[in-house]
Design a protein that fits this description.
11% of the residues lie in helices and 46% in strands. The chain is mainly beta. It has a single domain, classed as Sandwich (Jelly Rolls).
Length: 164
Amino acid sequence: MLQNRVLLFFLIVSFVFVSCDSNRVFDEYKSVPNKWHKDSVISFKVNPPDSTKAYNLFVNLRNTNAYKYNNLFLIVEMMFPHGKIIKDTLEYRMAEPSGKLLGEGYTEVKENKLWYKEQVVFKESGEYTLNIQHAMRENGKVNGVIELEGVTDIGFRIENPTIK
């Protein structure tokens, strides 16, 4: 009987924490198989709910200790419903100088919420596509990293800006 009550308590607490994310407009992850190939593009399709409001956009990334770099280079491409394309090359810091991985999490998996764009207004109605691929290179080498190890999931998140 006591076990059932404890289990119920943890289920309720978990539900409250998950459902209290009032800023979330869109939040989706896609798994990366064992290694993230340089030609593998992770795509997200989104229909923003309001064409008059501004939103903050994030690339979310889950990685393990197998990730051996201090930074991460990504090519992020946003395709608008009427054909316009914006392409950005982004760099994120993934580890401290000591090599300790940044991100949230108490296990081997760390979760990183990486800024992409802020105060974005989706003026065109219809479906937007966001494409993400890595653009990693090792120092002193011309060719890029073919298969990036340690990345388990890539996500895209749209949030209502927090009011301070």
